[in-house]
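Annex B. Sample input.
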Amino acid sequence: MATPHNSAEKGDIAKTVLMPGDPLRAKFIAETFLTDVKCFNEVRGMLGFTGKYEGKEVSVMGHGMGIPSIGIYSYELFNFYDVDNIIRVGSAGGLQDDVNVMDIVFAMGAHTDSNYGFQFGLPGTFAPTASFNILEKAVALAKEKGVKYHVGDVLSSDAFYKKCNESELYRNVGALAVEMETPALYMNAAEAHKNALTILTISDHLFKSGELSAEERQTSFTDMMEIALKTAIQL
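Annex B, continued. Sample output.
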């Protein structure tokens, strides 16, 4: 059943989907790592592909920028296409001194200034967290691979250009990095009783020098991509 944002039919999308923000990064992952690849979506340029990784079916699809965008795409995957697991593979800005460009961050939880959680009508504050079964597998693979990684909370902001920047305040309470999508993904997964994890590669740092180009962000995050794919085939 196609949606206004996805032309796929049921059965076109695997049970586990990797989701980068950039649809060109989705294309890169599909062409670089998957075999028997088929494109299932081109609506609005948000490319989606299904193929096989080490013989197991995996899909990859862009989710765009920001909480509203990933909120739409992840909701449809969980609720209309019977997807069980989504692994976001994205970029983030480092906040802590020991977090460096090209380090990997596993988002255990996500602080946010977004009002996305208001729709659920919950009293108090919705504290979205990763699914431990995916997190545990991914961290074990990172250890095995020998890459530098961090596990903890991230800050997810609704605005890229901000008049009032709260990054230093969240840095002071231990947030590892800042990005723009994780709470919607984790909230949608919780409501649908599905699984989600965000894996991030640090592309720049808010408190020290160093950053990657747009092209490097598309193609150089191979450690993160391989960890996500190897996690996906264990689910």
